[in-house]
Structures are given as C-alpha cells and as structure tokens.
Design goal:
This protein is 43% helix and 15% strand. α1 links the parallel β1 and β2.
Length: 176
C-alpha cells in the first residue's frame, strides 16, 4: 500500500506564450518522480490561469508524461487562479475520492503558505519540495520576499474565514 493517497502539485505561472516555466517543470518533475516511486496512487495537478488556452495543470500533465507518469493515475484541477483556490478546489476533489493522506509538492519557499491554505480547507498535508539549484539568487530573494508579505495575509484570511456557527473559543461543557 502506498504511503499517501495522492500527491498534489501546485502550478506555477506559465510563460507569455503558454509554455511551461522552470518553476512549473521543476514541481511537475518532482511530483512525477514521487508518483513513479510508488509513494502515492494518484497525482493531482492543480492550477488554472490558462495562457493561449492551456492551463497550468495541462502543462504539468505534459511534463509528468515526459517523466513516464501514468496518465490514468493523474487528475487535473484547472479552475484555480491562486494558492487559496488550489487548496479549495483540490480539497473538494480529494474528498470526492475519499483521499486524506496527501503529499503536497511546491517550492520550499511556497509550502508554508500552501499548507495554511490546505489546512484552512480541511486537508492536512505533508510537504515535499524539489531542489531548486537552477534559480538565481535574485529570483529566490523575490520569491521569499513575496511569501514574507503573503504569509500574514493568509493567516488573517484563515482567522476570518471560519465556517458559520464555529466560534473562536470552544468552552468545555458546564464551564459557562
């Protein structure tokens, strides 16, 4: 039996012509290698934002195919436009399949925020990041800077997006 029900890989922005970017290829290759190693029975490719009619998920599908990933074991989530929606729409897909053991693939700098988003949508994930040696220092600094600003926003978003009827504190019975 596989350690995880599914591997979820988060998309990355496509190039202006709709082709895959180094970040998208890096994530998809890492996820395909994990799928091929047998750690999970399915690969969920999550990312919309189509360019020239092709979504991030479709580009990742092509990259994973190039890594010999079995197309019958891949599912595409191509509606999401950002990390929050990746988590929302993928959580719905995971629940429909009854999957709860999830390995989440993205770049290391993106994973803390992505984990918060998935947890907010009821999915606890284990992170896995590809190595990113091909990224320049400027690109890494830009990504880390962006995440440093985005992380507090996500924490606030989670605090104020609690389902109706769920209070911030849960007093024990009889303590009121």
């Amino acid at each position: 039996m596989a350690e995880f029900d599914a591997i979820v890989v988060l998309g990355a922005k496509l190039a202006a012509d709709g082709s895959s970017t180094p970040a998208l290829r890096r994530r998809a290759r890492h996820a395909a290698a994990l799928l091929n190693s047998g750690v999970a029975s399915a690969l969920v490719l999550s990312g919309g934002q189509p360019v020239n009619g092709v979504s991030e998920a479709e580009q990742m599908f092509q990259v994973a195919l190039g890594q010999s990933a079995d197309p019958r074991r891949m599912l595409l989530e191509a509606r999401s436009r950002n990390t929050w929606e990746n988590a929302k729409f993928t959580a719905e897909l995971l629940r429909r399949h009854g999957w709860s053991r999830v390995l989440l693939v993205s770049d290391a700098w993106h994973l803390p925020r992505a984990q918060i988003a998935f947890r907010a949508h009821g999915i606890v994930v284990r992170p896995s990041a590809p190595r990113s040696f091909e990224r320049g220092l400027r690109d890494q600094a830009r990504s880390i800077g962006y995440e440093t600003l985005a992380l507090p926003w996500y924490l606030l978003r989670v605090m104020f997006s609690r389902p109706p009827g769920r209070s911030r504190s849960h007093p024990a019975k009889g303590s009121e």
